[in-house]
Please model this.
Amino acid sequence: SQQGEEDPQALSIQEGENATMNCSYKTSINNLQWYRQNSGRGLVHLILIRSNEREKHSGRLRVTLDTSKKSSSLLITASRAADTASYFCATDLGFQKLVFGTGTRLLVSP
Amino acid sequence: DTEVTQTPKHLVMGMTNKKSLKCEQHMGHRAMYWYKQKAKKPPELMFVYSYEKLSINESVPSRFSPECPNSSLLNLHLHALQPEDSALYLCASSQSSEWGAGNTIYFGEGSWLTVV
Model:
């Protein structure tokens, strides 16, 4: 399977803390994207990082990419209860055929 | 709010029924996608349309039949489904699906399908 792995599978933190999720993948990629999914809802695009980039920021989000290790991480700083959701990494193998990771379920408690 | 609209939000159908899921986007995107997501699993790609032509079919059973009437619309026709086909069906779009395009892919809210 080309599917990526994410860890942890589940993460429970308090509001104000930082949350870090890791993604590992198996093949060469064109870019890697992170998505958020609230329970039973559609996917919301968070950030895209290209294979020639190493780090990218967007608001409270920081994404890193290490193509030599085939891994990426998503850091959410100063978490809020509204950040509670599942987070997926998705690798674009070149033809915008996204392969999603297994996901991390984040619970942020007030 | 998503700019990819899917209808219906919920659908219950029998195994002998014929139904359709609909998807619409007005962002001028030329690539559209169907994904299937089972509970607590990641989405899995089913079909990709590029410039209204089917470009990728991920070995999906023929009881699922996609259709792209124009660049803004994408349908998924359903016939003789099985209970195991019950899932969230997600439509998505992007500017293109060409090699190396690296475009952001936008998803709709999904259609929950239950086959009884």
